[in-house]
Amino acid sequence: MIVSYVIPAHNEEESIGETLDEINDVAKKLLKKRIIKDYEIIVVNNNCSDKTEEIAKSKGAKVIFENKKGYGAAYKTGLKNAIGDVIITGDADASYPFCDSERFLKELENCDFITTNRFAKLEEGSMPMLNYFGNIVLTFVFRIVYLYNIKDSQSGMWIFKRSFLNEINLDLLSDGMAFSEEIKAIALMLNKRIKEIPIIYRKRVGSSKLRTFSDGLENLKELFRFKIRIENFLKNKN
Prior knowledge:
- The chain is of the alpha/beta class.
- 43% of the residues lie in helices and 19% in strands.
- The chain contains 8 helices and 7 strands, in the order βαβαβαβαβαβααβα.
- A 7-stranded mixed sheet has the order 3-2-1-4-6-5-7, with helices on both faces.
- The longest helix is centred in the C-terminal third of the chain and has 26 residues.
- The protein is globular.
- The relative contact order is 0.17.
- The model has no long low-confidence stretch (mean pLDDT 90).
């Protein structure tokens, strides 16, 4: 099994080194245990103007440039270049527990797509109150629109099989922050075996790039627009 770690990054020089060190440490343990055959780290340089790319390369990452600004745009490019049998995603800010990769791979044995619940254990200072409230609202609306009892619709850490990636059309998904909720939604609409598991969510290193109000409002609109878009796509496909 080859694992691809896909990380979007925009000016994360303060945290990218720590994030990639954690990935390399856990991946080497997985190699030693023969749980995986090989791994790759793909960092998507989304118009960085700092030393993110330089640091990522020094840690052994494959750096791919995506000049279209946006979280989703970066992920589309990274996922299209991933070669792994399993893909593990997360932010470059050291907030997500890549150290739990062995647990993720074990959980994935009986499903197609794993999403993660940050609310299970939020470390102090990891999510400002306004962001917390916004995430709760978006998750509540997601449950209503997609009829799925998800606990955290906005988590940016997912683990999924190559077979799932091969089945979806990434170009149907948003170039912005809504990509995170949409990849979960498309897994549901394709009737994939989905599991949501708890993680420890840590305080990010460096400054946040999230635009709380504008990104939150856009995500809310996309919850409805995306469902219509995918329903039409599936209808035409059949």
